[in-house]
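Problem: given the chain below (450 residues), write out its structure.
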Amino acid sequence: MTQSDFPAPPPGCPAHRGGERVPLHGPEFAADPEAFYTHLRSYGPIAPVELSPGVNAMLVTDYSAALQVLQNPDSFAKDARRWRDFNEGKIPQNSPVVPMLGYRPNCLFTDGAEHMRLRQAVTDSLAGVDPHWLSRHVEQVASYLISQFSARGTVDLLNDYAKMLPLLVFNELLGCPPEIGDRLVFGTSGIFDGGVDAEKANEELTQGLIELVSLKRRQPGNDVTSRLMQHAAKLSDEEMIHQLVMLISAGTEPQRNLIANGLCLILTDERYSGGGLLVEDAIDDVLWNQAPMANYAPHYPVQNTEFGNAQLDAGDLILISFAAANTDPKLSTSRQFLSKRAHLAWSAGPHACPAKDPAQLIAVTAIEKLLNQLPDIELAVPVDSLTWRPGPFHRALAALPARFVPVQPQRSAAAPPEQRQTPSATPHSRPQTKPEKGSWWSSFLAWWKV
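Solution.
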């Protein structure tokens, strides 16, 4: 292949100006990532990218090459303490991507026996979640959120539904009482939204988790936090907090993108809006073609090595483009023979998502509940006018405005108190307006108890 055969760099890419690294930040990448992936494939299976100003990485865009990295921990480690550029002081300390890439003592950033110990604790704790209970709880949260906007006739399905639902579901999974749950909702949503309150949000999240761990040491319950604490791995309080941060982060940001992107597809694609395909099909479609976490899974070569078209040095930062690998043109002839779940949106190998089945159940249940309660809902703006949040890691809408015929709020029968997994909340009258910032969990518990 000659240079004239390579696809032209997408608009806004510094390759137009002779730059070597392709930026995965800014509105140009968010608006049309596939154009960037097409250009990156011209380098070969792995290409040089810039995640943020001053933060360089190599991005794997080839499906087979991605599996080679993900399934070969002896050659490509996960421990972020190997990140050479960071260790040498080349990474700006205030870079917005460092919190997603820096080392934490959790099962995402560890290898070998330590990874197995932490991973087993997380996997076993999640295995205690009953799918039937989880489905019922998601329906309750969905009904509550819908009741907050159903009389208006308009809604931002991203910020008023897809964003809040995973946060409230995880509060129940973790066994949060009202005051701690409110802090986790505020902290988690603030971290992912960024902005001037991000530091305060991080403090709230950390303090909330410290209080939750302290509470569960004294009063364990039937919840993920307590099971994690009681596991044979004997996690310290610090390890507990870092596993919980990982669970909340992995269970909320990707989940909200999966729900929102699934709703967007269903509301704009006649294959789904016409009733020909199921919600499960839409979720599989999104996972293949618009992976909610588009570029992540940081790895580091253990030693200098030649990989694909590139010479990699030990400690180089490598990311996997789940989005580009899933849409690898070389799969076009074989994809029909692959399992519908053969996509890499859940990653693969020893660090594959341990909660993919619950995550799929949450997304499907949330979408089905919304469509059943508001069957005439439709997109309120042309699909081409939707905007996507900039960032190297996610494929995330900024908003998803929709409209429908207003209906009076309805509430499903709540599960009996003995089926709940969290401490009981003090009954209050059901809120009639959108909860104040920082009180979503308290408002939901009060609504549930009425």
